[in-house]
Structures are given as C-alpha cells and as structure tokens.
Amino acid sequence: MSRKLSIVGLGPGDDRYLTREALDALAKAEAFYGYGPYLDRVPLRKGQSRHASDNREEAARARAALSRAASGTNVAIVSGGDPGVFAMAATVCEEIAVGPDSWRALDVAIVPGITAMLAVAARAGAPLGHDFCALSLSDNLKPWELIERRLDAAAGAGFVIALYNPVSRARPLQLSKALARLAHHLPAATPVIFGHAIGRSDESLAVTTLAHARDTLADMATLIIVGSRETRVIAREGRAPLVYTPRAVEEAIA
Amino acid sequence: MSRKLSIVGLGPGDDRYLTREALDALAKAEAFYGYGPYLDRVPLRKGQSRHASDNREEAARARAALSRAASGTNVAIVSGGDPGVFAMAATVCEEIAVGPDSWRALDVAIVPGITAMLAVAARAGAPLGHDFCALSLSDNLKPWELIERRLDAAAGAGFVIALYNPVSRARPLQLSKALARLAHHLPAATPVIFGHAIGRSDESLAVTTLAHARDTLADMATLIIVGSRETRVIAREGRAPLVYTPRAVEEAIA
Q1: Most buried of the four, A30, A150, B15, B239, by CB within 10 Å?
Q2: Which residues, in sequence order, are CB contacts of B180 under 8 Å at separation 6+?
Q3: What strands, in cross-sheet order, belong to the sheet with A4-9?
C-alpha cells in the first residue's frame, strides 16, 4: 500500500506553469482532492477518482485526503499556484499536528508550483528584483491591526509588497484601507501592478501608481504588487511598460 | 527577424522544476546566454549557440544578450530559480533603462520559475504558509545597515524570513550577524531551515532552532528560512519533521 499524500502546485492559470515533478505526481496519484476549478485542470485517466470541495472547506478537505492516504491510497491534493503559499500545505500540516498517529506516518510530498506573485512579476518586468514580502489581506485569519502593522513595517523598511487575497465579498474595504495605509509611507508615484488571472485566457495586467490605485481594479483573482521607493517604470512605445526594482540600493533609505 | 529576448527560469537543481512554458521558450531560442552551470542544464539542438559568462558579469551578459536580440536573433537568457528574484530579469531591465532605443523596442518575455525559497519550503513542510518576506544578505548591493533594518522590521512584525545569498567568500560574517540580529526579536526555539542545493542530487535539508543555527551550516548554494513566533515543528518517527506556519494568527503579536 502506498500511504502517500502529495500536495501538488499547478501554478496559476492554464497548464503552461506545470512542472515535470507536478506531472509525475499527478500521473501516480489514485485519488485527487481539491477545489473544483483546480481539479478541472487535471485530466483523469482510468482508475483515478476526484473529490471536489468548496474553497472554504480546506480543513475538511485535508482531513478527508489524509484519511484516504492512511487507508493505503496514493492521494494528491491539487492547489493553484504554490501549495506552500497561503494554500493547502499549511492546512494539511495543521491537521496532521492534531490528527491520529497514522497521519504522521504518511509519506507527505509537497510539490512546489509557480505562485501568483512570480507570474505577475514576470508579466510586468522585474518588480521583485530586490527584497520583497508577501502578505495576505484576508482578515478571516488574522486581526486587521496586525495586517496594518505589517504593511507599516514592510513599506517603511523598503520591501516591495505582494498582496494576496486583496478582496472578497466578505471584505470589500480591505484593499482600500491597505492602499491608504501604504500611502503614509510611499510616494504617490510608487508603481502598483494589478495582475488579474495571469496565465488564463482572460488575463490582464494594469500598471498604475499608488495615487491612482483603486480597489475597483481588483477582484478575487487579482494579485497586487506595490513597489518600493526604488521601483521604476520604463515606458516603451507600442509595448507595455517594464516595471522593475533595481538590484542595488546605493544608500540607506531615510 | 524575431528581435525577441526571453529570460527563462529553470528552477533550482535538476530539470524536475522546468515548466512547459520554459521548455517552449528554450526550444524556440537561437542563442543562449547565462552562467555556465545554468547553460549546462540546457541541451542544445542543431543551430542553437551558447555564450557562457561568469556569475559576477550579469550586466555585461545582459548587454550582450540585448544587442544580439536587437540584431534579429531569438535570444534566451537562462537563470536558475526564478529570473525575477534576485536574478537576471532586474539586470536586463536596468540595462534597457539606460540603453539604446532598439532595446526598448524588443519583445521581452520573462518566464517565471520555481525560486529556491519555494523548493526549500516544500521540502520542509509549509513554513511559508503565512506572511513572509525574501531578503538578500549580499551587501555588495546595499548597505549592511539597511539589511539590519529590514531584518528588524520583518522579524518584529512577524514575517517568516527567507534569506538569499547568505554567505560568500567576500562576506563570511554576514549570516552570523544576521542570525544574531534576529535573536533580538525571536525566541531561541524559533525553527530555522537550511536548504542546500535543493533539487540536485547532493541536496540536503537541516531543521534546527535559532539558538543552534550557525553560519557553518550554509554555503553559496544554501537558502535559509527563519520562522516566525508562530512557526511550529511536527516530529515524526522515522521521518523528517514537518515545519509549518499556521495560516491563522489568533491575536496581534505583542
């Protein structure tokens, strides 16, 4: 019996970001667990089964997959982007920590994927070319005061900031509040990138400034990158601009 | 004439992390530029040429590749990991910014890859499951005082911290100083992960604590992840421990 659980990152969008390691893990699995739209990206061969669950049922999904793997099935949980970045790998670890001994005995393999911030950065140029951070704006999982404190710390110290989960029906105002907070630390001309559904056929990219950034540019499929004081934009005739953060900082930022 | 420049991320280690998009870009290129060990990972077909340069010649490499692409060749610069994270994409943008108009007219395509911190995190569990940052310890490119300020800001605000470029012959003491600095903010038991050459046949992973972390555990092929106060370790009999940072923080950190 295999008693294996893989947590596989599919990357964002379509299949262009799938790695060979991910393809291998998907080929070997007998049962797939995941959010429906991610499962739809995995073609089934004979003998493979799929078990879809809703986006808000991560813990229950992790428990179901762990139980199935412990019963002797080769199980794969599929995840968009990278499973280790605000996604299923942490959920599975949380459940293993409080679950039966048989879950700790499983062969757990996490297969990394291209996370949204890398895909959006690549489309825009090189905004993550210098120190950066990734921050989820979901306050389901932490107090809003902590999010504000992290925005202050990151912007104040000169990190470029990638914002995950910028908006949802439950938190329509978070992004507006976050952008206003960042405006206390950063110049109005700081470049801001809105990457929507990168890798999908309906992908779009908007480059604007902190002064002009609005929450209406974002939805649940948007990843936002807010530059630092060092981030620059190269205008190009007939082409999209290139946004980049130079590798070097000459002097300590005041 | 193609006048195309691709900057292609190969991921760390061997070819398991190559994406379909990267394979497509490599197949179409006529001339490859890059650091020798990365070029060695790209098999050449008839009609393709390769141009190796040293690790410290990034700017000259970017200029050579840009000139070649502007002359009508389909050029690919290859990069380990992700080209947008402390790598060639920013270098190319820096050169385009100060170069001739013909460089701004090029079709520049950046192909993202698995960056080292995602590969190391996947091997260890889910240490990047909550907010995190990526920081280069190279003070060739910025003042040491700024690195310390960023370590203070990131650790103080509860970000997990991925350290790139932890040591080199030119800076043997940076990592020791960084770990000592972090110890002002974080408990002695904070998990620290040293990932060496992940994805290569000589890969290794060490999980220790901030109190026991030493610069002797790192070389130039090491990526380090320092946990936050929330990061936890699941011990497993007969298996490597799982290190993870829970998705949720219940209360603001004092």
Answers
A1: A150
A2: none
A3: A49-53, A31-35, A74-79, A4-9, A107-111
- Beta-sheet pairing, A31-35 with A49-53: parallel
CB of B78 closer than 8 Å to CB of B32: yes
The H-assigned helical ranges of chain A are 20-28, 36-39, 58-70, 88-98, 101-104, 116-124, 144-156, 174-183
Helices in chain B by DSSP H: which ranges? 20-28, 36-39, 58-70, 88-98, 101-104, 116-124, 144-156, 174-183
Pull the structure tokens for residue A156.
Answer: 């104040």
Alpha-carbon span A106 to A96, nearest angstrom = 10
Q: Which residues contact B188 (CB under 8 A, 6 or more apart)?
A: B209, B210, B211
Check B122 against A112: CB less than 8 A apart. Answer: yes
Structure tokens at B23: 């394979």
Strand duo A132-136 + A160-164: pairing: parallel
Report pLDDT digits (tens) over B191-238: 999 999 999 999 999 999 999 999 888 998 999 999 999 999 999 999
Q: Which two tokens stand for residue A40?
A: 């739809």
Neighbours of A62 (CB within 10 A): 26
Query: Who among A19, A108, A157 is closest to B153 (CB)?
Result: A157
Interface of A with B in 121-150 (CB under 8 A): 121-123, 125-136, 140-143, 145-146, 149-150
- Section B92-106 average pLDDT: 98
Torsion A78-A83-A86-A88 (CA) sign: positive
Rounded CA-CA distance B197/B187 in Å is 28
End-to-end CA distance of chain A: 60
According to DSSP, residue B16 is labeled G
pLDDT at A77: 98
Tally Cβ neighbours within 10 Å of residue A126: 29
ipTM: 0.96
Chain B residues within 8 A of A247 when measuring between CB atoms: 86, 90-91, 94, 141
d(CA B66, CA B60) in angstroms, rounded, equals 10
Strands A222-226 and B31-35: unpaired
Q: Encode pLDDT of A42-92 as tens digits.
A: 989 999 999 999 888 999 999 999 999 999 999 999 999 999 999 999 999
- Backbone dihedral angles phi then psi of residue A6, each to the nearest 5 degrees: -100, 145
Q: Residue B100 burial by CB count (10 A; 0-12/13-18/19+): exposed, middle or buried?
A: exposed
Q: Which residue has the tokens 């907070």?
A: A181
Among A4, A101, A118, A228, pick the best mutation site for testing chain B contact (most B Cβ within 10 A): A118
Q: What is the pLDDT of residue A1?
A: 63
Helix (H) / strand (E) containing B207: strand B204-209
Tokens of B253: 């950190």
pTM of the model: 0.97
